[in-house]
Amino acid sequence: MSKSEVKFQKLNDDAKILGIGGLFRSVGNKSWAINLDFNGNTSQSLQFSNIPVLARKRVLNATKPYDLAGLPFSFTISNAQQWSVANATDCPAYQAHRHGKDSNQLCFVVQLSDVYCATITLTGSATIRMAG
User: Fold this and answer.
1) How confident is the model at residue 109 (pLDDT cuts 50, 70, 90)?
2) Long-range contacts of residues 114-120, Cβ cutoff 8 Å, at least 24 apart
3) Residue 127, phi then psi, degrees to nearest 5
4) Are 60 and 15 a contacting pair, CB within 8 Å?
5) CB atoms < 10 A from the CB of 113, how many?
6) I need a surface site. Which of 9, 37, 62, 80 has the fewest CB within 10 A?
7) How far apart are CA 63 and CA 77, in angstroms?
8) Does the CA dihedral 95-98-99-101 come out positive or negative?
């Protein structure tokens, strides 16, 4: 099943993720969840196991095809010890685009040639979608 085919019963159609919030686990519950902010000024939590399909500006329960936001950008990590940590609001791309209530979320900051990139998500291969 591809990312575009995943359906979430408790979300509206065409639910666009504007912000990714904190992780939490209720007392006595084994499962972790993550808070999300969506278009239409709505918030919802989803199980953490859904993390592979969660990204800012991604549309869940899409009723039509949507273009991915940003541009593909690949790089090689030579030394992650030189990275620093900042708030998401310190990233110029965050300030230029509307987001949810995640402005105090921490992210990695790294200088890549002439590209300033404040939000980095690491997966098996380091591929980033740059907004802008």
Assistant:
1) confident
2) 115/73, 116/91, 116/92, 117/73, 117/91, 118/86, 118/88, 118/90, 118/91, 118/92, 118/93, 118/94, 119/88, 119/91, 119/93, 119/94, 120/83
3) -115, 135
4) yes
5) 6
6) 9
7) 37
8) positive
Structure tokens, 13: 């159609």
**Type of residue at 91:** C
Cα 99 to Cα 41: distance, rounded to the nearest angstrom: 11
CA–CA gap between residue 123 and residue 18 (Å, rounded): 21
If residue 99 lies in a helix (H) or strand (E), which one and from where to where? none
* Side chain identity, residue 97: H
Helices and strands per DSSP (H, E), number in the chain:
1, 9
- Kindly state the tokens that stand for 101: 């209530």
pTM: 0.64
Q: What is the pLDDT of residues 15-34, one digit of tens each?
A: 999 888 888 998 988 999 99
Please name the residues in contact with 52: beta carbons below 8 A apart, sequence gap of 6 or more: 3
Other CB atoms within 10 A of residue 50 CB: 14
